[in-house]
Amino acid sequence: MKRKILFLGESYRADAITWMNGLKEFGDFEICTWELQTPNNSKLNRFKRILEYVFSPLSIRKTIRREKPDMIIAERTTSYGFLAAISGMHPIAIAQQGRTDLWPEGSVLLPLKKIIQKHAFKKADLIHAWGPVMTISMKAIGVDMNKVLVIPKGIDLSLFSPSTNHSNKIEAIVTRSLQQEYRHDSILKAFAILHQKEINFSLTIVGDGTRLQFLKDLAKELQIESKVIFTGRIPNTKLPKLLQQSNIYISMPITEGVSASLFEAMACNCYPVVSDIPGNQSWIKHRENGQLIEIDNIEMLAEELIWSFENTESRNNAIIQNRKFVEENANYDTNMKVIADKYHELLDSRK
């Protein structure tokens, strides 16, 4: 009989789908899901969502009685991870999604989130750190590191395959959600500098988010709208082709855990130009295998884009090195087998 896992988290997210599909494929698990139903898109809905969260342990226990899962897994240590911790079920595996999960940093709820997170870490039988940067905050608060598995879920290297781009212009791509923390406005302003310098480029911005119309208006205001393509939300299956058609990948978040988007770009031979923050420093060394850009430094971003494109040999060496790195460290087939085996090991040890 198949072992069953209850997943707590937003099941529509690409990251969550990768996790669940990997467990089905490499662990032969059956997956059932539970998630909050109220969208987090207005002040009224945020209040309703908090109320739903308060009463959610009853709903989760009801799901456990109905589905009879063998174990429970959850994303985000400060939300679904805590709900897993108080579910009364074991074994529990929780995943820290961000560098700390204590976000936003100025939030009045931060002291409460710290308490919730500490409890989740204590109750968990296994803690996922999708990359080394996540372990720093764990060690700082005294998490039992014997429970921590440091490995990314990885990406499908058969889908995200390398291609050769011989374009004589910058063909850049951005694949992050159109939210303020990803600083698409800074990216557009840097390309406006390139436009003023009469440097030829195209910029593809993939995805959707609250800033879509604002960014479209900004591109128009900067007089670069003819060179910027907004694709809107696309299926993940269409993403590899867009990456393969590009030669530079740009991502400027102000905070980062482990970015599957970065691995996807590296796998498709896109040269990474990313923000200079710990989550990116784990993988990128400046002017070695990519560029690290100071947050909101528009002039630096423009200059480094020009440097990247003009230094063809350095760029080509980097993309070869990056593809090899992804094959060795972020192969979905290899990594998800390790994770699935670990879950079976947890279940066997509790018999």
UniProtKB/TrEMBL annotation:
Pfam families: Glyco_trans_4_2, Glycos_transf_1. Residues 52-127 form the Glycosyltransferase subfamily 4-like N-terminal domain. It comes from the Bacteria. SUPFAM superfamilies: UDP-Glycosyltransferase/glycogen phosphorylase. Residues 167-324 form the Glycosyl transferase family domain. This is Glycosyltransferase. InterPro entries: Glyco_trans_1, Glyco_trans_4-like_N, Glycosyltransferase_grp1.
